[in-house]
Amino acid sequence: MRFKIINTVIIFLLCGALVLTFFGLTSFWYVLTFIILYLLFLLTVSTNVRFNFFVNSISENRNIINKQVAITFDDGPVENTLEILKVLKKYEVKAGFFCIGKHIEAQPEIFRKIIEENHLVGNHTYSHTRKMGALPVSTLVREIEECNRIAEETAGIKMNLFRSPFGIVSPKTQKALQKTGMQSIGWSIRSFDAVLSSEEIILNRIKKRLKPGAVILLHDNNAKTVNILEQLLLFLKNNQYEVVRPDKLLEINAYS
Ligand SMILES: [Zn+2]
């Protein structure tokens, strides 16, 4: 709705500007600059769920005043998830795992182990396609429902929470979430552990952005994330931060 209103206003302003350009009352270059800025704005809000522009996502809990944060992992379950689980167990921490449907199919035992160890699981689509922004609503619904179906068949749970691959969202994502009854979950601290190579830089990014109620994004399919996680948990412990399961931190229901 918000997008429709803003888009209508922008198109209205553009038409007005084009009329002014036609009569020589303004420069065409101003209009072109305006169009480019609007396209950059759309690119920014469609690749960052935190802005809550196209989709209503929960990305942190600003009401939390105690030193509590949540840790989430995307893109599993894979073999490396077992190493992540070992570290979480060592520090007696519960986390959230946003799982890819086809990976659950390939690693059903690891998916069940995540749940048995009382971590949260959520939907990260069936195929984790890079074409998220270009998919029609019907395909997005299928991607979400297929992942939900596999999770239910594998572990008997009905997931409520969804995280969009690559953080890409559009008005179609919002429609697909309404049709499937899923809640979008974002993050407030993006570690870039899947992109950056330096563990020190990744850890410093997280440390600098830490605050009560924060949700940290990591990837359990990344080998170096095991060591990053251990160092992060040590840092959190030494700084009196408590790590709580994302549904507890965000005060929402993970399953129905
Ligand atoms: Zn992902």
From TrEMBL:
InterPro entries: Glyco_hydro/deAcase_b/a-brl (IPR011330), NODB_dom (IPR002509), Polysacc_deacetylase_ArnD (IPR050248). One of its GO terms (molecular function) is hydrolase activity, acting on carbon-nitrogen (but not peptide) bonds. Residues 67-244 form the NodB homology domain. Keywords: Membrane, Transmembrane, Transmembrane helix. It comes from the Bacteria. The keyword Transmembrane helix applies. The chain crosses the membrane at residues 5-23, 29-49. GO terms for biological process: carbohydrate metabolic process. This is Peptidoglycan/xylan/chitin deacetylase, PgdA/CDA1 family.
